[in-house]
Amino acid sequence: MIPRKDYKSNRLVSGLLQLPKGMQVLVDETVLQPGQLLPQGLENLKSIGNVISWQKLAYDFGFDYRIEFESDVRMLIISEADPCYRVMLCFRCVRCSRLLTIWQSNNGCRNV
């Protein structure tokens, strides 16, 4: 997910988190499966968290040498439980059918 230096081709290979300024990203945590994360998965989670919290993305130049660059990405996280990341604002949602029932009872509406 992060950009990496490929020394064989002498190029910087872009990553999924290398996004244009003002980009909006939807992170869907509802598709996560229980299990153990591999080291690459942990690195990806950490990178997403850094973009969310600090708006910084590390570029990996190998040999334990990384440089952080500023990022301007907005992320919306959808989760069935508490999100994996520290977020600024959290909304609790209920199922649409239950929400419709609450709205109808509060507004004196009835099913037609």
Decide which structural class fits the backbone.
alpha+beta
- Regarding quaternary structure, what we see is single chain
Distance N to C terminus: 50 Å
**Share of residues in helices:** 10-25%
Q: Describe the global form.
A: globular
Q: Mind telling me the C-alpha Rg?
A: 20 Å
Total DSSP E strands:
6
N-to-C series of helices and strands = EEEHEEEH
Overall residue-averaged pLDDT value: 82
In percent terms, what proportion of residues is strand?
25-35%
Largest sheet strand order: 1-2
Specify the biggest β-sheet: 2 strands, antiparallel
Helix tally equals 2
**Unreliable runs:** 107-112
Task: Give your account of this protein's structure.
The protein is an alpha+beta fold and 112 residues long. It is 24% helix and 25% strand. The chain has two helices and six strands, in the order E-E-E-H-E-E-E-H. The protein has helices at 39-54, 96-106, and strands spanning 4-6, 11-13, 23-28, 56-60, 66-70, 73-78. Strands 1-2 form a two-stranded antiparallel ribbon. Strands 3-6 form a two-stranded parallel ribbon. It is globular. The model is unreliable at 107-112 (pLDDT under 50).
Q: Any chance you could write out the topology, listing elements then pairs?
A:
Elements: E1 4-6, E2 11-13, E3 23-28, H1 39-54, E4 56-60, E5 66-70, E6 73-78, H2 96-106
Parallel strand pairs: 3-6
Antiparallel strand pairs: 1-2, 4-5
Provide a short characterization of the protein structure.
The chain is an alpha+beta fold and 112 residues long. The chain has 2 helices and 6 strands, in the order βββαβββα. The strands form 3 sheets. Strands 1-2 form a two-stranded antiparallel sheet. Strands 3-6 form a two-stranded parallel ribbon. Strands 4-5 form a two-stranded antiparallel ribbon.
